[in-house]
Each structure stands twice: as structure tokens, then as C-alpha cells.
Amino acid sequence: MTGAFTYCHAIIKHSSKNPTVSSFYKLLTVAMVICTNNNYFELSAATDSDDMDILSESSAATLMTHQLVSKYQKKVVTCMKQYKDDLLISCLSFLFSLPVSIIKSNLDTTSEALQMGLSLGLSYPPLIRQCVNTLRLLIDCLEKHELVEKLELLLPYFDKFLQSSSQAENEHVDEIPRKVLKNKQRLKLPPALLRLAKEKTLSGRTEVQKLKLEVLAFLGSLGGELNHYVISSDRKSLAKLAVSWDTRSHLPFHVPFRETKADIYLDKFLPHTCELAMSSSNRQTKVVACELLHSFVILLLGNDATRPAGYSKKNSAEKIYSKLFPVLLSLSVDMEQVAKQLFEPLVFQLIHWFTKFPKRKETSLLLDTLMDGVESVNNSALREFSAMCVAEFLRWSIKHTSVEQQRKNPENVKQLLRRMFSMARHPGSGKRRGACFVYNHTYMILREEESLIDKFTMEILVCFIDCLACAHADDPSLETHQEAKKCLSHVERILKAKAQLFLEPSKQRRIPLGWTTCTLKDAILWLLSQVGRSETECRHACMDLISNLVPCLSPELNSRHKLIQYVVEKQGIQYIIDRCEAVPTTNEGKPGILQMSSPFRSEHAPAVKVCLMWFDKLLACLDAYCWFIGNGTLSASQLLAGRVGIFSVLLHFVSDVSMQSLHDLTAAKSGGVAYTPAEVDEYNRCKCTAIVRIFDFITIIMDKDKKLLTQNNLLNADFWRLLGTCIVDPVAVGFNMADIVILENLPAILKRLLQTALRFLDSAQMNSFYESMRSLLTSRDGKYNLYQIVQSMELSSPEEYHLFCTYLTGGYQLLVDVNVLAKTLPAGVMSSDLSLALTNTLLKASSIKVSEPSTIRLLEVMYNLALSIGVDNTCVIEMLFKPNGLTSYSLVEKVLLKYMTGKGSSLISSIMGKATSSPHKASSYIIGLLEYCRATNVLARQTQLVAAAVLDNWQLLDSWWRDGAAGAASTATAVTRSYCIVILRKLILIGAKLEGSKNYPIIVQFFVQTITSAQSEQSHRNELLDVLPSFLSGTKEQTQIVRGSIQKYVNDRFPLSSSELPMESTGYHDYMATFTKILEAMVIDCDMELFKIMLGVVCREESHSQENIIQEYIRRFGLRLL
């Protein structure tokens, strides 16, 4: 099972980038099934033992795969609540395919997935089977009290499934023939016929019937102590059925008999009708119940519409509607198509009716129901439809409101926005996401009404800034951040489009809490006061809004620089500093980084929550300073010359916090706390984010004013040690290198910092860095001395050690990229020594079987480092043409090909020089290089240099194709000729200019000989004819030679009549393939000489066997000539 981790990691990486592609979940499902069948995850039990130090390589790989999939499981459970249809089923199938160890470790998420799967299983039975299989696994490994708790929630779903029936089940009832019934004599059938009848009955069962038998067998295996939970004992459900909806009757139906008119009240039928319409598993019953319910609603509305004014207030049907509206909304998105077709238009009609009466309770109830639907957690279809209904509610509310009334008091709009504001600031992520859905669906309606824009836009801006702040702790997979940012982008578009309206104050405009006036300038100044907020996305949104809205201000303030200078003139530079450091303006404000004491200086072990809060405030402060200084709004000396407290905080963080793990920080303190793995991961994530932001801050200060760093002693030994450790061993600092974002972005950040330091720092300051790196690389334990590690490293070491060596080698590569490796290497070690040792490691790997992906990845980065340091081309050629050269090449193929594209002619000519002695290896390397140029984003200039180098050395391939002289044996074979043809085709595919090469006459000779020689195979001729157009654009002399070879081939090889060859024979197919290729070249190049040649062939006979095809080519040829 080698490669399981690499496979899962790659699929999860792509799935994380494209979470709505169901195929990735299906691929992971297949992988989990294979792993489970091979007992791959049973080795993860080693994590519970005390023998962690002696884990084998396979055990370590298994443990890493287990942790990766377990973490991804939680993300999928969170994300899939927003999915539907095939995507949702794919997610559930993946969750149910997980091994029992992962299922048991995340029992709550598994239970949540099982409930969703069993609920959907009523409409998609295969999910029921998967749920049953998962429950069987759980029963064997759970304690009894845990089992009872979960089964009590899950088993009632089976009751609905078992009660369901289909038309197919009724069709399989056997009818007893009448003749058999009339026959009084008892017939005794033979045993063979009885068995046959039994098998026929079993085979005649539908899949649903078979699945029901499986469910019954499963329930029977639980025993009477557990399977009684199938019958739900939910008191709330019983109460709903037992309690009347309203004490008054609202649904009278007058039945006109002949002698009297009887009044029947239908209210009592409503609860049961709704129950059947919502949850009946019998389709016929469900459809009839839906039609009856639809009639009840129409009757209720009709009675309401025909009654006199004032009657509805006294006899309100509010209680009936409070029960009906949620049912109607749910049925509008039901999987039953009849229900959907009935109730979707009905709900819209209800909205159109009730928006006429903004002050009625039923209107408020309808709006409340829609807002409840928008915040639905598990039903994405209901969320989407409810949001559409809210938009319809707003649209028709505006239609039913006069212009004057809308300007003064738009009642329905106020009700809607009041609920949206309340939801947007709610602690629950579902409600906040629902509020965002509402605005994103109603934005296009609101923006068309200027009175509503003027009245509510500023309030909406503040609302969604607060909403984004509340979403700070939300799981990213919930997408509350994205939805809130989308809302703010809509607000931004409105403010830009209506900037002239908002430049002046308005009496109609609602003023947000805490504002004195309400103009665009006030909004931007308020956003400026929020740039130091500790909530990351909120802070960034405020910065973006300021940058985008400032150009809309009056000319004296229409740039960030002008606006900030205006603020500095009015309130002083300390105001900006206080905003960056989040100094509260009131006693009730949240404390900033300086007002909050560091939890790491306390005598007691800090709580993780407090540490994370402190990190957030540090990040906010650094972000704000980087924003002001980085975009040139304020100079570093101007901003940081005031009463700035950030430097003392940074010194404390770098010296006391950055290099210490959470356990190290709290080990010596009283009141020790046991931290969970999740808390440690979150702590490390926040700490490392702060480290990265510090690197950004210092990079900007170096670029703008490096004296500030020296004056505040930021570039001290602790900082250089932190930087060095991040370069060679980021995992030791706390970085999670399994995170794709960190893996891709951290090296770039470190490289930018080092390049800036080399450009702006003096030699004495850089010497401090060199000394720090040298001491790190020459530490006593030799942990970071790559030269020593490579010399003693075994390729069979555990995967964790290979990963460590990979990151260490990547750190050395970074030092090479900025040209400082030679200054940081240990004394006595030259760069060339390290390069040679790395190359020897690759040669050692070539002699043994290497299959682990982590080992291959390590060899790639090591050899890439060796090539970056400098390797003589002779050494590369020697390695490639050793007996196991192809093995070495396969291990580091991408690295070598990238290196070869940069080296151009020198390396290529050396490889082609080995064509005679090692044709297979030389062809593999040249063909691989040409394919690499075509398949990857190699620069066009480099591609042309590679092509030119191959063409200029074409004469070195003579032995592969040229026939021997008279009486001499030829070294050319069919295989070597095929090598030449493949190389030539690859050259043409990458755009090589054959006619511009000095060896073009030799290449033409190769073409002519291959076409005309009796020793050539027909398949080779056909392959060369594919590139015939490329040989028709050279010099006149060479082109005539090519045409002559075609004429000779036609004369020698083509039959006088197409009927000479049987149509199904190989010879006929070869003839037609060649014929078609020459015709295609004739059309592409508009070559009249080829036309004459082919015309001569066609005129040999009265009617060619492929007359229609030939005429089509001639027609196309004629059109090209026009």
C-alpha cells in the first residue's frame, strides 16, 4: 500500500481548491475502500501505544494518512451542508467509506452524516445500505451507553423506510390460477420445482425489497433491547399531532344538499394532511395529500379575500398560517416533482397577496418563515428558495407602496431590513450566513430605488462590517466570510454609483449608531477607525473599502495620501498610531495590544483562548502598520516616530514566544494545563501567522527606513535565529508544512526578506545573519548539517525523516537562490563538496529499489540543490550514461529536464554525441526534453534554443538512419529510425524552424531516404508523411528534392489501380493512409506540384475506390487557391 498518503494528499489538495467537484470525493471513496480491504489503517493503532519511538516507516506513513483523512473528514461534514444532489451524495459516500478508526474518533460528525444519509435514503435507497454498513462497524466498537445514545437518534429513520412502498412491489404479487383453485385434488409438486419457484420469487424482488430485508436483518441483530428505538418516542412529535392548531375554525365548506346546506369545517384535517404531504413514503398518498393541501390553502385565501374589511383583524388566521407557511415552503423544494410544481408558484402568489397588507400579522409571519428558511443549516435548496422568496417579497412590497409612502415609511422594507440586521449580528453562523444570502438576493432590487438607497445604505455598510467581524472565528468551510464580503462589494458598488448622493447629508438617511453625521466622507473616516480591529477579514475589508471609495470624495480628499494627511492635520499622527494599535476611544472599547498584558508573562499557564486573542491583536497592529507604510500613505519615520508600542511587543514575541512550543512555555508554570491536539494546532497556526506578518513588517521597514530597525534593536540575535530556523526547519517553529498554502508561500516570503536585507543592510548587519546561520548549521548535534546528513543517510529511513531532510534541503536551496550559501556553510565545507555528496546520494538510490514517494521527492530536491550549486556537465553526462543511468533519470526527471533547458546546446550536443554507443538512452533523454518543452510553461526563447541545439547536432544521429556504403553494413535499425522520426515530429510540434538550420539538407536526406528506401517500414513512411507540409516550405532546391521523393514513392509503391488490392487487406489500408496524408499535405500547403502528382494517380483508372474522399480534398484545395 505504498503511495496511499501521496495519493490522498494530492486528491485532498485538488478537492480543497475545487470543493464542488464531486469526482474528487468519489476518488477518495475508492481509495478508502481499497485501504479498508487491505487493513491499511489497522497500523494506526500504534498511536495509542507507548512505542511511538519504534514506529516503522510503513506505520509512520499510515499514521500520517490517518491524520490527513481524519482532518479532512471534519471539513467535508461542515461543507456538505451547503451541497445538494450528486455532490451531497458523493460527500456522504466518502464519509461512509472511511475506516472504523476514523469514524470512531469523530463520532459526532459521523452521527450527523448518518442522520443526513438516512433522511436522503428515503429518496435514494443506496444510501440506506451504506448507512447500515457503517452502523454495523460502529456497533462492534462502541460502548453500550454510546451506542444507545446514537441509535436512539438514528433508528427512527428506518421506520419511515420500512413503511414505504412502491408500485413495483405491488406488481410482484402472484395470482393463483382459477383452475388450481377449482381443482379439489391436492397437487404435490416435486422438490426441484419448489426450489425453482423459491429462486424465482427471490430473483423477482426489487432492489428496494432486498434492501428492506437487509435492514430487517440488521434490526434483528440488534436484539429487543435496542431495536425498539425504531419507533420514535419523541414527545414533541406526539404533541404536534395531538394539539389543535387553533381554537377557532377558519375553513368552512358549505355542502349543498337538496334539502339543506351543511357546513363542514376542514380545519381538523389540516395537521394530518400536512403530515402526509411532508413525510409520506407512499408516492400516491403524498401526491393526493399535496393536492388536498393546495386546495385548503386556496380555500383559506378565498374566504379571507371575500370577507368584509375588518373581519380578518377580529378573526385572524395567524395560528393556522404559522403552521402552514413552513410546510408550504418545505414542499416548494421537495424532491417530489408534483409537490414542487404545486407549491412553488403558490408561495409566490401568497407573497404577492400578503405584501398588500404590511400591518397584518400574517405578513410578518410570512416574512419570519422566509427568514427562518434562509438560515436553514442542512437544506441548501430551502435556503436558496427562501432567499428568492425574500427578494420577491421586497419586489412586491415596493410595487404595493406609493413613492411618497416609500420615501417616508416603507413598512415592509423596514421589517425585512430589521430582521436582516438582527440576523447579521447574531452569534450563530447560520443566521449570519442567512442574512448575507438575503442581501445578496435583494441587492439588485434595492439599488434601483434611490429613496431606499439613501435611507438604508450606510446602515447596511456598518451592519455587514459587524457581520464580518462576528465571522472571525467561523470555520472557513462555512463560507460566511465570502458571503459577507460579497455583500460589502455590493454596498461598495452602490456607494460608487451614487457617490454624488452621499457626498451631501440627507434628512431621510438613517444614521448608524455612534455617528454624528452621515456622508460618504464620514463612512470612510469610520472605516479608517476600524483598520486596527483584531478580526482579520473585517480589517482587510475596511482597508479595501477605503482604497476603493476614496477616489469618490471631493478633489481635496480623493486619494489615500490626501485623506490621511487631512486626518493627521485634524487629529495628529498619534490618532493613526492609536488606530493601528487599537487603543480604545471609550472606556467600553476593546483593549488593544498594549492595553492587554501578555499571557506569556503570567506566572500561571495561559489559556489557549487568551493566547489566540493576543496573537490576533498583534496581527492587527502589524497589518495596519504595513498597510499605512507599504502603500506609501505615510512614511515609516513619520508614523513610527510617535509614542509607538509595537517594537517592545515585537521584541517580547521574538525573544520569549516565537521559538517556544506551547508545552515549553507552560511546563515550568504553576497550574499546568493539558492541551488538546486541536488547541496546539490552532496555537501554532496563529503564532506562525504572526511570525510571517513580522517578516513582512520588517521587510517593509528595511525598504523604507532601516534605521528604525537598528534603533529599536529588532535585528538582534533572537531574530536571526528565528529566521534561520524558519529557513531550514520550519516544523520546529510550529509551521504545518502539510498545509498547501504554507508550503507554497513561506519560501517566497523568506526569500523576499533575505533579498531586501541584502539590498539595504550593511555588511556588519549581514555578518550577524551569516554568523547566526553558521552556528545553526554547525550545532553540536549536527541536526542541520546537510553535508554530514547526506554522507550517512540511509534511503530506507522513516518517512518523517525524509520530510525533515526535504525541508532542510529546501532551506539550503533558498540560501543558494539569494547567493549566501557559501557564507553560511560550516568551516571546511565547500559548496562543491556538498554538491558532490548530493549527487552521490542519487547514484546510491539508482542502485537500489526506491518506490516511496517521499524518498523520490527528497532525491529531487537534493539533486536540484546540487545542480543549483554547480555541477560540471561532464558529471551529468557520466551519470546519465552509466548502466543505471535511466534509473537515475527517472528519479529526478523533472529536475534534470529543467536544468537541461537552461544549459542549451552544450549538454544536448554531449547527449547526442552518445547516439552511436547508447542509442536508447540518448533518444530517451532528447525525446523527454522535447516533450518537457511542449508540456510545461518553458519560455519560448528557451524552447527555441533547445530546438536549435538538437537541429544543429542532427549529423550526430547519422548512424541511426543512414544506409551503409556499398558493401558496408549499416548500423541503422528500424528502432533507431523510429527514434529519429519521433524526435523530428517533437521538434515540429514545439515550433522548430527546420529550414533555418544548417543541417536542413541532412534532414531532407533523412526524409527522402526513409520515404524511398526499400529497407524502411511502411509505418515509418506514414509517420514522416504527417510532417510533409514542414518540408514544403524550405528552399526551392530542397523542396524539389522532397517532391521528387514523393513522385518516386508513388511510382514505385502505388498500384496502377486501386482495385488491385483487396479492400480489407493491410496493403490497401497502407495505400489509402499514404494517399490521404499526401492529399492532406497538398491542401495545407496549397502545393500545385503535389496536386499534379496525385492527379496522375487518380487518372490511372476510370473510377477510384475512394472517389468521394479524393473529390472532397480537391474541393478544399480549390477553395484554398481562391
UniProtKB/TrEMBL annotation:
Residues 318-1084 form the DNA-dependent protein kinase catalytic subunit CC1/2 domain. Residues 5-222 form the DNA-PKcs N-terminal domain. InterPro entries: ARM-type_fold, DNA-PKcs_N, DNAPKcs_CC1-2. It comes from the Eukaryota. SUPFAM superfamilies: ARM repeat. Signal peptide: none annotated. This is PRKDC. It comes from Bugula neritina.
